[in-house]
Write a structure and sequence with these properties.
CATH topology of the largest domain: Aspartate Aminotransferase, domain 2
Distance between the termini: 55 Å
Radius of gyration: 22 Å
CATH superfamily of the largest domain: Type I PLP-dependent aspartate aminotransferase-like (Major domain)
Number of helices: 12
Strand content: 15-25%
Number of strands: 11
Strand order of the largest sheet: 1-7-6-5-4-2-3
Number of domains: 2
Bound molecules: 4'-deoxy-4'-aminopyridoxal-5'-phosphate
CATH class of the largest domain: Alpha Beta
Largest sheet: 7 strands, mixed
Shape: globular
CATH architecture of the largest domain: 3-Layer(aba) Sandwich
Structural class: alpha/beta
Length: about 350
């Protein structure tokens, strides 16, 4: 266990958080004349700032206490907040393993924190030798690990993440946006062992709620307290909280969809293996597949002309194309088009 206080920026430690009307009175009965709301309408009231009803449902689902849960406006908000909490602008550093999710770099730049890029090995795994020298740097406050990784699709080896957690006196954010599609379990089971671990997840991918912008962070009660201190008062809207509550009621439907996406992925991998221009299909624990093709720029252009939009990742992985798993019809169309243009 590490001393979390020593990682929190001094100004955040001293911050007096905004006290909203709903912080000062949290009952539901009465005439509410305290938040300068409009008395008319259906969306006229501010949302619950701590999303208690939603947290209770998520706590049940994940087997956690509600005070180990933070809910953000997408998990992108979690990434930004974690920088704000621990990285002193212009002084502190963060580290990540590349290629990875581009928002880590953007969040680092917004917060004026240097981001150290450590290349993943040829299997897109962490090479502990390359990260070891950085672990003792007192300015390094945050390590971001994406697992399953975007854009490569693979899970990071769990033992290596545990090694980093055990040997680093800073925060480790494990971004599990795609974990519901993976064969292995989430790292939330390690939260009681490592108080420097923050696991982020999202309702945007497996739950099909990207438009609702709801992401989560799971961490120690103390760490969640820092998130709550720094977040905007009403960061998740009432309709968005409700969208997730509705989805949670349809858990069966959601798991059927995840299973269908996993099966479609296997079929797509088989079919892609027969296309001449596809040179390599990387293993995927996510809802997308990374391919190495003959000529990514050319393929991207031809597919776009046919109104099939994939992600050209050529700038980060030579001739890399990332394909999200669509509906069976969309996937068939993709394969037919690729077969014709090959
Ligand atoms: N993490 C990863 C790895 C992602 O790929 C994404 C979205 N593309 C996010 C986080 C952000 O997801 P959201 O803000 O929708 O929760």
């Amino acid at each position: 266990m590490i001393d979390l206080n020593s990682i929190i920026r001094p100004n955040i430690r001293q911050l007096k958080p905004y006290s909203s009307a709903r912080d000062e009175f949290s009952g539901t009965e009465g005439i509410f004349l305290d938040a300068n709301e409009n008395p008319f309408g259906t969306l006229n009231r501010y949302p619950d700032p701590y999303q208690q009803e939603l947290k209770a449902q998520i706590a049940d689902l994940k087997g956690l206490n509600t005070d180990s849960i933070f809910i953000g406006n997408g998990s992108d908000e979690v990434i930004d907040l974690v920088f704000r909490i621990c990285c002193e602008p212009g002084k502190d550093k963060a580290l990540t393993f590349t290629p990875t999710y581009g928002m880590y770099e953007v969040a680092a730049n917004i917060n004026n924190a240097e981001l150290i890029h450590i290349p993943l090995d040829d299997q897109f795994q962490i090479d502990l030798k390359t990260v070891q020298p950085y672990l003792s740097d007192p300015k390094l406050k945050l390590i971001l690990i994406c697992s399953p990784n975007n854009p490569t699709g693979n899970l990071m080896e769990r033992e290596k993440i545990e090694y980093i957690l055990a040997n680093f006196e800073g925060l480790v954010l494990v971004d599990e946006a795609y974990v519901d599609f993976a064969d292995e379990e989430s790292l939330i089971g390690l939260l009681s062992k490592y108080n420097n671990l923050i696991v982020s997840q999202t309702f945007s991918k497996a739950w099909g709620l990207a438009a609702a912008r709801v992401g989560t962070a799971y961490a120690s009660q103390e760490m969640i307290g820092w998130f709550n201190k720094v977040k905007p008062p009403y960061n998740v809207s009432t309709p968005n909280q409700q969208a997730v509550l509705n989805a949670l009621k349809n858990y069966k439907e959601y798991s059927k969809q995840v299973e269908m996406i996993r099966q479609e992925k296997e079929q797509l991998i088989n079919a892609l293996g027969k296309i001449a221009s596809v040179k390599r299909i990387y293993p995927s624990d996510a809802n997308f597949i990374l391919l190495e093709v003959d000529d990514a720029n050319a393929l991207y252009a031809v597919l776009s002309e046919q109104k099939i939009i994939v992600r050209n990742r050529n700038t980060v992985i030579p001739n890399g194309i990332r394909i999200s798993i669509g509906t069976p019809e969309e996937n068939n169309l993709l394969i037919n088009t690729l077969t014709q243009i090959a």
